[in-house]
Amino acid sequence: MTQMIRVTYLIETPDDPQAVAARIAADQSTGTFTDLPGETPALRARHAARVESVTPLDDHALPAIPQAQGVTGPFYRASATIAYPLDSIGTDIAALMTVTLGGVFAMRGLSGIRVTGLDLPAAFACHPGPQFGIDGSRRLMGVPQGPMIASIIKPSLGLSPQDTAEVVRMLCDAGVDFIKDDEKMMSPAYSPLEDRVRAVMPVIRDHAERTGKTVMYAFGISAADPDLMMRNHDHVLRHGGNAAVININSVGHGGFSFLRKRSQLCLHAHRNGWDLLTRHQGLGYDFGPYQQIWRLLGVDQFQINGIGAKYWEPDDSFVQSFADVSRPIFSPADRPLPVVCSGQWGGQAFETRRRTGQSLDLMYLGGGGIHGHPNGPAAGIRAIRHAWRAAAAGLTIQQAAAEHPDFRAAYEKWGRP
Fold it and tell me: How far apart are CA 114 and CA 50, in angstroms?
């Protein structure tokens, strides 16, 4: 039996959604014309995509949208699942993106189209997937259970390599498990990556020698040139580093694949630019299909925002993203570590734990919620650790604030209505 790649789209159209789905399937496979040279019924049977289902999403027409292609409406929405023969596409990610996830956006007769689901056959397990994932991240950080508490170098821009090293020293002494360069930090003139690595890694080693705890530091090694990114990787590895921040949308699928196949570092994915693909609810991608591609390529840790984030994304979207990255594609080993981030302080731990199925397999990343604590960054880390212990024990946020001074100070600053 032919293996199929199944893609689900949200379509918005003034036409019959069933007919539009059929046009999409034809256009992205054997074509919309008939009686062409070489065309046979057998060829179409082997290679044509087929519409498996079209489900209306509204009981009534949407309001007219007169500026859309000169059409005055009414418009209809439907969920359409189209199956593409694996033999026609193969397992190459570029081919998958081109045929099933890219070309559909050029179709006529649509005021909106969004990729909402992706079901890949087992043949796609040929991709490497995470090298470290959840278990490897825990091992490298020495955190066998519970959330991994993390921070970002702040200010994000402007610190010299030596200034950065001093902040790292303070965070290590405060008891953090993980530190990262901000995604905006790669190799600026005032802090070249090579100099930053040379300044930071002795601090990491000194802390490990004194305490037995090796804090994971993820350096920003992204570059549009894969060879340069690989040289950055090698420099970090040569100086004893074990992690890197990769701006995945900036380096692209090919650049990331090039790195992953040669990498010995734990790869922490920042998805900046993702919002361009998802913020309009009628266009782009849901996170579910988007994250599958990056996981197949080898993301180890995946930033997904958080509860009460400082950016636009609603809490429900974060909760769904957490569920998406926590669900195996082919095996439990292909799950990356979910990174809860974006405006986090200890107060969101309670709702995060409740809404993510009580999971503690996560990294909890605080920037301003640590550096901006009224009693200093060390108190910010202590407050977050206490919040997660209290959440696991079933306490309310008010009860947690009553029994811990550092968390109480954070609550007074960020938690009161």
Answer: 18
